[in-house]
Amino acid sequence: MKLIPGPPPEAFRESIATTYSNVAQQREEMGEAEWRWPIAERVLEILRAEGKSRMLEIGAGVGFTSRWFADRGVDVVATDLSPAQVDLIRAKGLEARVADFYELGVEAESFDAAWAMNCIHHVPSADLVQVMTNVRDALRPGGLWYLGVWGGRDEEGMYDDDFYQPARFLALRTDESMLAAAEQVFEIEWFETFLPDRDDDPDLHMQSMLLRRQ
Q1: Residue 200: is its pLDDT beyond 70?
Q2: Residue 145 sits in a domain of what CATH number?
C-alpha cells in the first residue's frame, strides 16, 4: 500500500470511529495477534513488582487485551473511539467508554498505568506531544504507559487502497521523532523495535516503549 501524503481530513476522528465500527464484528472474529502477548506478560510483571493495579487502555479495539489484563487481576478501564467496538468490550464484562487520546474522559491522576497498542498512529504529529500530555495527566506520579505503534519513517496521510473504509488517516514516525516527542513528556524506561510478521510494508517496524510519568 502507498501512503498518500497529506494533512488529516476534516472530522478525521469521526471518520475513523465509523471505519472501526464498520469492522468491529470482523475484528472480534479475527482475535488478537499472538506476538502481543509476550509484551503484555512483560508489562504485567513490572506492574506486579511495583504494586500497580489500575490500568487505562486507550484504543482498546474489541477488548481482547483489556480482558487479558483483567483476568490477571488488573482493574482495567477500556476506551475506544468506536461505539460498536465499545459495545463488544462491554460484552466481555469490562468497564468501557467511548473516548480517544484527545478526550480521555477520566479524572486526573486516577490510573497506575496505561496501555495503547497501534492507535496513536491516528494522531497527527502536530498533536503528538499534547495527546501524550493527556495520557500523562491521567497517570499517578510514577505511573507507567506502554505504547506500541508501527513506525520507521516520517509520513502522514491515507493509504490509497486501505482495506478498511472510510480510509484512515495515519501518521508514521521515525524512531528519532517518536523518542523526541516522548522525552518532552515522560521518562523513557525502554524503547525497542522489532518486526512482527507482515509483508505489506517491509520498511516499517514496531516501536515498543515503556514510559514513566516523572
Answers
A1: no
A2: 3.40.50.150
Cβ contact 40:69 at 8 Å: yes
pLDDT tens digits for range 28-62? 999 999 999 999 999 999 999 999 999 999 999 99
Closest by CA to 170, choosing from 183, 151, 193, is: 151
Query: Number of structural domains, the chain?
Result: 1
- Domain span holding position 77: 3-212
In terms of pTM, does the model score above 0.85? yes
Spatial contact of 149 and 206, defined as CB atoms under 8 Å apart: yes
**DSSP label at residue 153:** S
Q: Residue 73: what residue type? A: G
- If 0-12 CB within 10 Å is exposed, 13-18 middle and 19+ buried, where does residue 34 land? exposed
Residue with cell 475506544: 80
Burial of residue 194 (number of CB atoms within 10 Å: 0-12, 13-18, 19+): exposed
Distance (Å, whole) CA 142 – CA 186: 10
Give, in order, the Cα–Cα distances in Å from 192 to each of 54, 86, 146, 180. 25, 30, 12, 15
Q: What pLDDT, in 10s, does the model give residues 127-176?
A: 999 999 999 999 999 999 999 999 999 999 998 889 899 999 999 999 99
Residue corresponding to grid cell 495527546: 131
C-alpha cell at 194: 522489532
